[in-house]
Specification:
The protein has 436 residues and is α/β, with parallel strands linked by helices. It is built from 14 helices and 19 strands. The structure holds NADP nicotinamide-adenine-dinucleotide phosphate.
Length: 436
């Protein structure tokens, strides 16, 4: 029976679900040995560095990942960067297939004046900062002003706004990065605006996230009743209201009608507000919005503007994939057809394949579809065995599954003592030490 060798690049949800789909496809006639490569010494991708710390339930999927990793045909090579430490060409030559599950790590730019002023951050920096990603541990997040603006009407914008707007004591029992939590405790921010360029009926927030807002203990959430009513009327005029939109409109109504308790912390939604310019003398001081309106179902610029004074702006308007040597990217994704990189034995799953859309579970069906294609493309003969470690430059400390298990256990133990699910370490050096 041929045992095919598969390399998976990226230890996030797409990577683990790909490994799981391969494991589930094994039979008497087909088996796989799976090597997963990850550039960090920590695993789980966005489950660790993306999912908001106050949403711990979503992170329980990590148990599935660890079950996948405990199978005998799975090996982990953490702290090994493909495209730098090992060339893609090398992997393609040694493995029957290479599956790129490298996500989308770069925040999209607005392309407006003032976007590069200090105080203007991307969610692609802010989210990994509060989640303890080593690359963002020293990010400068100015929290000394009273007002912040979050741009975008998706769930990432919602996470960013919530983290800024809630009382930081609500994060004390979470795995928020220690430095970020300390900074949030000193934050002067009391008002957080979330700005969407279209109407509430077009927002990409999902209903469960909206329905959670009135439950916030120390934060009033504000949207005008007139805005919600207008959105409802426009949605009805546009035709049949789909289920997800009906849920969102109902959630908006509940938010608008929820009595305010007079907290000094507020999160306020602004719609039909298109960012035009960030102004300030050496740092962000003001955000200028163009006012849109909806005419005949189309969003149009009225030519009018208004401004919000703020010292921190976070753009949460989507992501694109970061470049990897040896891989061709197009439109912010790995150039692929349904997950196949044509003319190669490379495949891709997750955000690197389809762009930054869907929830963690979306990657499960995505992986299963791509693994079916991968299996249908396999040659009759599997490649000969090879010791990939001989291609990893000397001096690199590989974080294998045993080593990651030690890091994971040490973080959980350190957290337990403080009543947290884990205490994240953000120094690569220390993580490697913990894995020894
Ligand atoms: P998203 O859902 O695609 O939302 C992006 C938002 O950015 C949209 O509102 C979009 O507005 C806006 N936008 C894009 N370009 C803009 C511009 N130039 N100016 C102003 N606004 C602009 O993306 P995301 O929030 O990054 O989330 C990515 C995926 O992760 C989504 O599928 C999301 O559901 C998922 N996620 C889920 C959770 C959860 O389940 N709790 C948490 C976080 C993320 P237009 O619609 O007008 O283009």
């Amino acid at each position: 029976m041929p045992q095919y060798k598969i390399a998976i690049v990226g230890a996030g949800p797409a990577g683990y679900f790909t490994a799981q789909a391969l494991q589930n496809s094994q039979s008497d006639e087909l088996s796989f040995s799976i090597d997963m490569f990850e550039r960090l010494p920590t695993m789980w991708g966005l489950v660790r560095s993306g999912v908001a710390p106050d949403h711990p339930k979503i992170k329980t999927v990590a148990k599935v990942f660890e079950k996948v990793a405990s199978e005998p045909n799975f090996r982990l090579f953490g702290n090994v960067e493909i495209g730098t430490d090992i060339d893609i060409e090398e992997l393609c030559a040694r493995y029957d297939a290479v599956v790129m599950c490298t996500g989308s790590a770069i925040g999209k730019k607005l392309g407006i004046p003032g976007e590069d002023l200090p105080g203007s951050l991307s969610a692609a920096e802010f989210v990994p900062w509060y989640n303890g990603h080593p690359d963002f541990a020293s990010l400068d997040v100015p929290l000394d002003g009273t007002t912040a603006v979050v741009i975008g009407a998706g769930n990432v914008a919602m996470d960013c706004a919530r983290i800024l707007a809630i009382d930081p004591s609500e994060l004390d029992s979470t795995d928020t990065a220690t430095a970020a939590l300390e900074a949030l405790h000193t934050s002067s921010i009391r008002k957080v605006y979330i700005a969407g360029r279209r109407g509430p009926e077009h927002a990409a927030f999902t209903a469960p996230e909206l329905r959670d807002l009135p439950k916030l203990e120390h934060t009033d959430v504000v949207i005008s009743k007139e805005e919600v009513e207008a959105a409802h009327i426009r949605a009805e005029a546009a035709g049949e209201i789909e289920k997800h939109l009906a849920s969102n409109l109902e959630a908006w109504r509940l938010i608008a009608e929820h009595p305010h308790s007079g907290h000094d912390r507020e999160m306020e939604f602004h719609f039909l507000a298109a960012p035009k310019e960030f102004k300030g003398d050496g740092k962000i001081e003001e955000v200028v919005f163009g006012i849109n309106e909806i005419r005949d179902g189309k969003v149009v610029d009225t030519g009018k503007t208004y401004s919000i004074k703020a010292n921190l702006v976070i753009s949460a308007i989507g992501y694109e994939a970061a470049h990897i040597n040896g891989i061709y990217f197009h439109n912010g994704k790995i150039d692929n057809e349904e997950g196949r990189v044509l003319g190669t034995n490379i495949y891709t799953v997750g955000w690197a394949k389809r762009g930054p859309s869907g929830v963690i579970g979306t990657n499960k069906s995505d992986a299963s579809d791509v693994v079916k294609l991968l299996i249908s493309d396999l040659p009759e003969q599997a490649r000969p065995d090879c010791d990939i470690t001989t291609f990893i430059p000397a001096g690199i400390q590989i974080v294998d599954q045993a080593s990651w298990t030690k890091i994971n256990a040490a973080e959980v133990a350190a957290g337990e003592a403080l009543g947290k699910p884990r205490l994240k370490e953000t120094s690569i050096e220390k993580l490697l030490e913990m894995g020894k």
